[in-house]
Every structure is written in structure tokens, then in C-alpha cells.
């Protein structure tokens, strides 16, 4: 019995030591986790092969779903799939860098546009804001087109001319274009009643007469014009910045082929 007392004492000391050691390990483990969270300021919700998955990585998705993605990503890397996307990744990286610089340049440009600039732009591009209504007569014979054109220039009604020819057995088609902008090149700056030259279109010929003009007032175009002017200023600022860089860094630029050639 006397021999058992020292032995029991050793067991108690050993058990107390083990318990203390386990608590120490748990404390250290918890401390490490706290340090990891504190170090990155991000909360770790899981680990995959030791790689942390942060709470912000979830983006509202279940943790298990994100873990599945992590495992698949790791497998993809093992198979070398990252090589497949290197070029695309580099293009994306390049665009991020370029856009970051452009954003910095654009920040230096005032967002306000002088009303006089808007008015000046409107006047310079007035034809862009005009909608023209045109009467069009189409025929298949050039000589007939010339006859109709001459009568229209003399002031005769284009529709009546076409109707007279149709009644006499000669084919002449009349069409009302409705309001369009694509006639500004033909009738830009011309008065209502103006007649175009004979226009050949494929195997046919046509004569146009301007019958009505509608203008979009400046009051309805302030914001679109302002946006156009700001876009122009931004493009000019970026161009100016790159020209300065080219000069300062003695960058050699060689254009091999012009665009559109």
C-alpha cells in the first residue's frame, strides 16, 4: 500500500500536466486563428488545403458552395488550365491598368460646360438636329427622270407630274419618306421646295423634293450636347497626356498601316 502512494502521486501530476498542455495547445491554436483574422482584417470561415476562405469570398453564397469552387480551382491549377487563360488574363490586366490611368486623367477635367460652348456646338452641327420630309419619285428610264426633273425645277408639283406619267402608261412611283436625317447631305441649308438632281440608284433613277423641315430645339439637346463635349474634352486630355509622355520618355511610335486601309 505504501508503494502505491508515490505511484498515484505521479499519475495525478502527469494527468494535470497533460491537461495543462492540452489547454495550452487549444489556447495557442485559438490565438493563432485570432492573429490570422487580425492580420488580414478578414474573417476566415474555412480552409482548403490550408488555404483560407474568407467571409467576403462567400458573397452571399453557402460556405460549402465556395469550398467546392476552391477544390475545383485547385484541380484546374494541377491540370495547368491557368496557362489556357494567360493571354485573356493579361488583356484584362492591361485594360485595368490603362483604365486606371485614364480615370486619373479624366478627374482633372471640370464637369461643368459653359452654356456658350453648348450653343456653339449646336450651331456648328445644326444639320444633325434637323429632320427632313421628302417626296421621292422613282422611274426606270433615265430620259423620263430628266423630263420629270426639269418640270419639277420649273415649279410643277412633283406628285402630279408622276401621276400624269403613270396615267399615260409610263411607270413612275411616288413615295413620302417621312421625317429622316439622312437627307441633310442633299438638302442641307436649302429651302423647302428645293429639288435634288437626278440620282441613280442601281438600275433606277429618282428625284427628291424637300417638302417639310423639323428642327429639334436646343432646349431639348442641352444634356446630349454636354455629354458629347465632355467626351471630346476627355479624349483630348488623354491624347495630350500621352503626347507629353511620348516626348518626355522619347517613345518611338511607328505606324505600319493606317486604319481602314
Structural topology:
Elements: H1 4-40, E1 44-48, E2 51-54, H2 55-58, H3 63-78, H4 81-84, H5 86-106, H6 115-124, E3 130-139, H7 142-153, H8 158-167, E4 173-180, H9 184-187, E5 199-201, E6 204-215, H10 222-248
Helix pairs in contact: 6-10
Structural account:
Strands 4-3-6-5 form a 4-stranded antiparallel beta sheet. It has a two-stranded antiparallel sheet with strand order 1-2. By secondary structure, it is of the alpha+beta class. The chain has 10 helices and 6 strands; from the N terminus they run αββαααααβααβαββα. β1 (44-48) and β2 form a beta hairpin. It has a domain at 119-218: Chitinase A, domain 3 (Roll). It is 56% helix and 16% strand. α6 crosses α10.
Features:
two-stranded antiparallel ribbon, alpha+beta, 56% helix, 16% strand, 261 residues, 10 helices, 4-stranded antiparallel beta sheet, Chitinase A, domain 3
Shape: elongated
Structural class: alpha+beta
Order of helices and strands: HEEHHHHHEHHEHEEH
Largest sheet: 4 strands, antiparallel
What is the CATH architecture descriptor of the domain at 119-218? Roll
Contiguous helical run count = 10
* CATH first level of the domain at 119-218: Alpha Beta
Total DSSP E strands: 6
Helix content: 55-70%
Proportion of β residues? 15-25%
**Spatial separation of the terminal alpha carbons:** 108 Å
The CATH topology of the domain at 119-218 is given as: Chitinase A, domain 3
Spans of at least 5 consecutive residues with low confidence: 1-16, 20-39
**Sequence of strands across the biggest β-sheet:** 4-3-6-5
| Average pLDDT rating | 83
Rg from alpha-carbon coordinates: 40 Å
